[in-house]
Automatic annotation (TrEMBL):
Coiled coil: none
Pfam assignment, any one: ApbA
Origin organism lineage: Bacteria, Bacillati, Bacillota, Bacilli, Bacillales
PANTHER family the UniProt entry points to: 2-DEHYDROPANTOATE 2-REDUCTASE, 2-DEHYDROPANTOATE 2-REDUCTASE-RELATED
Associated pathway: Cofactor biosynthesis; (R)-pantothenate biosynthesis; (R)-pantoate from 3-methyl-2-oxobutanoate: step 2/2
Cellular component aspect of the GO annotation: cytoplasm
Identification of the protein by name: 2-dehydropantoate 2-reductase
Function in brief: Catalyzes the NADPH-dependent reduction of ketopantoate into pantoic acid.
Keyword terms, alphabetized: NADP, Oxidoreductase, Pantothenate biosynthesis
Catalytic activity: 6-phospho-D-gluconate + NADP(+) = D-ribulose 5-phosphate + CO2 + NADPH; (R)-pantoate + NADP(+) = 2-dehydropantoate + NADPH + H(+)
Location of the Ketopantoate reductase N-terminal domain: 4-154
GO MF entry, a single one: 2-dehydropantoate 2-reductase activity
Length: 310
């Protein structure tokens, strides 16, 4: 039987894993938060939606207890944990020569880092527009709908791409095989590079940020740096389109009432993914001799806040 592991079974990993399990796939959740794993195995995963609350029995293990080999591994750790997790999976024998590694993580540069551990043709990059919340150990909040856009990291889609698409769509995850997933990745990264650090630094919800009368001028300072770097890397994104996407998130009926994930990480004592967002833009800019002072400053400010919370 085709075996699937979700490595990083937090909010989003839990949502994806439960959906696949409910579609009758052989799924194991892998996570290193021991109370979470224990609660799932003892009581099942508690699911809370807009209209219902129920429990799903799904197997979960700590990464140190991996003893199986998987055909598909969906990587949904925090970005800073991805390399150590993938290295551990490889050293534990969880990966064979045809195992597909599907990265659904936020941020840039994952194909560069992960391909040092497994061959590039085994890595698939995904952008997911699903959302999820983790209310406590073994307790997911699942609201709204979404989609997944993915492509093999080497740019060549194949029969495994088709298999992954079928699996995800059997679970009603609305997956599409992309012909250029990098544009989608950079688009989502730009949204995250704007909303995550600004809401975190300013202690504001997305709608509160958007209520500032000069918000477009403020946001464009970040966007224009990112677009310049993207164009130098042959990624076709445009500032006006990106600004419109971000503006569309301000209303309460969209994302206006929400705090972004970086705000939640910081205020729950976790390190943020700033180095894989604005920090990665600054790193690319330095390599390309492109000035990115705004993204550099935002990166420093978030690291200052992390230090103050530690």
């Amino acid at each position: 039987m085709y075996k699937i592991a979700v490595a990083g079974a937090g909010a989003m990993g839990g949502r994806i894993g439960v959906a696949l399990h409910q579609a009758n796939y052989n799924v194991t959740l892998i996570d290193d938060w021991e109370p979470h794993v224990q609660c799932i195995n003892k009581n099942g995963m508690k699911i809370q939606t807009e209209t219902d609350t129920y429990t799903v029995k799904i197997p979960a293990i700590l990464s140190k207890d991996i003893s199986d080999t998987y055909d598909l591994i969906i990587l949904l750790t925090k970005s800073m944990q991805s390399e150590s997790m993938l290295t551990h999976l490889k050293n534990s024998g969880a990966i064979h020569e045809d195992t597909a590694i599907l990265s659904m993580m936020n941020g840039l540069g994952h194909e560069e880092r992960l391909s040092k551990i497994v061959p590039l043709h085994q890595i698939y990059l995904a952008v997911t527009m699903w959302s999820a919340g983790l209310k406590g150990p073994g307790h997911l909040l699942l609201e709204g709908t979404g989609s997944i856009n993915f492509q093999c990291a080497n740019g060549v889609n194949n029969s495994i791409s088709t298999t992954i698409s079928k699996i995800l769509n059997d679970a009603n995850l609305n997956a599409t095989i992309s012909k250029n997933v990098f544009e989608a990745i950079w688009t989502k990264v730009t949204v995250n590079c704007v909303l995550n650090p600004l809401c975190t630094i300013l202690n504001q919800r997305i709608g509160e940020l958007g209520a500032y009368s000069q918000i477009n001028k403020m946001v464009l300072l970040i966007i224009e740096e990112i677009v310049t770097v993207a164009h130098a890397k042959k990624i076709d994104i445009e500032a006006e389109t990106l600004l419109n996407i971000i503006t569309g998130m301000y209303p309460q009926s969209a994302q206006g009432l929400h705090y972004p994930s970086m705000y939640q990480d910081l205020n729950n004592g976790r390190l943020t993914e700033i180095d894989y967002l604005n920090g990665q833009i600054a790193k690319y800019g330095q390599a390309l001799d492109i000035a990115t002072p705004i993204n550099q400053m935002l990166t420093h400010q978030i690291h200052q806040l992390e230090r103050n919370k530690s």
